[in-house]
Amino acid sequence: MIQRRPRSGFTLIEMLVVVIIIVMLSTMAVASLGLFFRGQGVRKGAILVAQGMAWAKQEAARSHQTHFVVFSKKGAEGWLEIHKDNVDAPDGLYQGDGDPKSDDHDPAIKNGLVDLPKGVTFDRSPESVGVSPSGYLSFSGSFGEVQASTFDAAMNGSDPKPIGDIILRVMHKPFVMCMDLDRASGKVRRSFFINEEP
């Protein structure tokens, strides 16, 4: 009687099944990561804006002088810069052109230039926001501040549309970050991400 040795290894069918399972899991992981990373640039931009506002508030309180957060965009590139109020000029009014490459009457603070992520720019923002030593915000010119109740109603609806005091957008992509500023506290009250893909 011939005895068979116990079989070791995998058959071709078993190997194919394992490979198919690995391919399916990899495809699902890549799709999930794609959804996770969509819009991360605009989300990071919103974090940088909030940090810039907090930095200006801290510097204003420390020096007992108004500081300005200046919002600028040039094409697809956006940045913000923090300036200190020059006491020789009318207090509380930003005296500059918003260009970080030129000298303004209200000087920029050291390391006060913050670039937004590549391709992220301001779709809506005031030219500048003054931050008083107490933290109170004053918007430049005739900027129309969006009320908190209007912001909440728009964001909680079934089809939110971009609205806010500051709106960041990724150029040529459907990703938008809407930010609501609290004038009294000098902070970003809330922000909301919108994917405008149909």
Keywords:
single chain; 198 residues; alpha+beta; minor pseudopilin epsh fold; five-stranded antiparallel beta sheet; four-stranded antiparallel beta sheet; 9 strands; elongated
What is the compact description of this entry?
The protein contains 3 helices and 9 strands, in the order H-H-E-E-E-E-E-E-H-E-E-E.
How would you portray this structure in words?
With 198 residues, the chain is of the alpha+beta class. The chain has a single domain (40-195), classed as minor pseudopilin epsh fold, CATH 3.55.40. It is built from 3 helices and 9 strands. The termini are far apart.
Q: What is the subunit organization of this protein?
A: single chain
Indicate the proportion of strand residues: 25-35%
Number of structurally distinct domains: 1
The Rg value, from CA coordinates, equals 25 Å
Instruction: Give the count of helical stretches.
Output: 3
Order of helices and strands: HHEEEEEEHEEE
Mean of all residue-level pLDDT scores: 81
* Helix/sheet category: alpha+beta
Total beta-strand segments: 9
CATH topology: minor pseudopilin epsh fold
The CATH class label is Alpha Beta
Largest beta-sheet details: 5 strands, antiparallel
List the helices and strands and how they pair.
Blueprint: H1 12-37, H2 40-63, E1 67-74, E2 77-84, E3 108-115, E4 120-124, E5 128-131, E6 137-139, H3 148-155, E7 166-170, E8 175-182, E9 187-195
Antiparallel strand pairs: 1-2, 1-5, 2-3, 4-7, 5-6, 7-8, 8-9
